[in-house]
């Protein structure tokens, strides 16, 4: 793990406090000691954050497991059978079955797992339990908006840009064909809209994301751009942090399906 002075060079040094630390230097010290996750600062460069993520102390990983235990406990009070339709899933064999990214998951209050046997990261499990916990069953509007349209989203917009829109734009700039092929692994609908790529992808049955990509103009030094949109009713299903994680996870998984993990 790099030292605080090395880390602080990559921070904007605005001391905005959004990471929960009083200053950028305090964040750098905590990160250097492995006490916080790099993603806690929405302005920390995404590539560096990914490289450092695996170096956080075991107790920070333990915090993730503690959150997972907490969300599982909250789900115990929910009648999954009665609510299955509201979540866009089905109830079979005592478990709720949901489409998730490129696969299907089954969950009850004890366990969440992918039906194809692939392991499910604790962060995915927290997202799934939050979906069940907060999903109200409100019909989707079919109108899509940027994350900035939702209240209190300023810092989350920066996180979305850094960890989902920017890496995806960089990947599409050079690997568009591979990524278009990999899209077929997901539940998608191609959109007739003015963009070089416009597609709706379902992360969860009630959480579709719209992705628009415009290629850059190399001669004019303009980079490609990605904009991710949410249904106006998305906050009826997930909190803002989870909505951002949906986009991050989709991009991660999409790159993985295209054989481009960690390349962007
Ligand atoms: S969120 Fe980032 S920019 Fe803001 S104080 Fe924390 S480290 Fe500094």
TrEMBL record:
<dbReference type="Pfam" id="PF04060">
    <property type="entry name" value="FeS"/>
</dbReference>
<dbReference type="InterPro" id="IPR024264">
    <property type="entry name" value="DUF3786"/>
</dbReference>
<protein>
    <submittedName>
        <fullName>DUF3786 domain-containing protein</fullName>
    </submittedName>
</protein>
<dbReference type="GO" id="GO:0046872">
    <property type="term" value="F:metal ion binding"/>
</dbReference>
<dbReference type="Pfam" id="PF12654">
    <property type="entry name" value="DUF3786"/>
</dbReference>
<keyword id="KW-0408">Iron</keyword>
<keyword id="KW-0004">4Fe-4S</keyword>
<dbReference type="InterPro" id="IPR007202">
    <property type="entry name" value="4Fe-4S_dom"/>
</dbReference>
<dbReference type="GO" id="GO:0051539">
    <property type="term" value="F:4 iron, 4 sulfur cluster binding"/>
</dbReference>
<keyword id="KW-0411">Iron-sulfur</keyword>
<feature type="domain" description="4Fe-4S">
    <location>
        <begin position="1"/>
        <end position="58"/>
    </location>
</feature>
<keyword id="KW-0479">Metal-binding</keyword>
């Amino acid at each position: 793990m790099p030292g605080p002075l090395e880390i602080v060079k990559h921070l904007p040094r605005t001391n905005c406090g959004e990471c929960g630390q009083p200053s950028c230097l305090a964040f750098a010290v905590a990160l250097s000691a492995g006490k916080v996750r790099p993603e806690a600062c929405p302005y920390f460069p995404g590539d560096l954050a990914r490289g450092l993520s695996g170096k956080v102390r075991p107790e920070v990983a333990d915090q993730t497991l503690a959150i997972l235990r907490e969300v599982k406990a909250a789900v115990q009070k929910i009648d999954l059978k009665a609510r299955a339709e509201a979540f866009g899933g089905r109830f079979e064999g005592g478990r709720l079955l949901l489409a998730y990214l490129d696969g299907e998951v089954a969950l009850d209050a004890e366990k969440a797992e992918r039906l194809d046997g692939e392991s499910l990261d604790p962060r995915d499990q927290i997202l799934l339990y939050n979906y069940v916990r907060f999903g109200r069953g409100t019909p989707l509007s079919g109108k899509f908006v940027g994350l900035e349209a939702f209240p209190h989203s300023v810092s989350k917009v920066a996180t979305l840009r850094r960890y989902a829109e920017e890496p995806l734009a960089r990947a599409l700039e050079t690997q568009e064909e591979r990524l278009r092929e990999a899209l077929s692994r997901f539940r998608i609908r191609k959109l007739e809209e003015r963009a070089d790529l416009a597609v709706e992808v379902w992360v969860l049955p009630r959480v579709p994301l719209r992705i628009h990509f415009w290629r850059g103009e190399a001669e004019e030094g303009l980079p490609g751009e990605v904009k991710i949109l949410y249904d106006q009713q998305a906050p009826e299903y997930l909190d803002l942090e989870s909505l951002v994680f949906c986009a991050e996870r989709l991009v991660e998984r999409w790159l993985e399906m295209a054989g481009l993990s960690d390349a962007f």
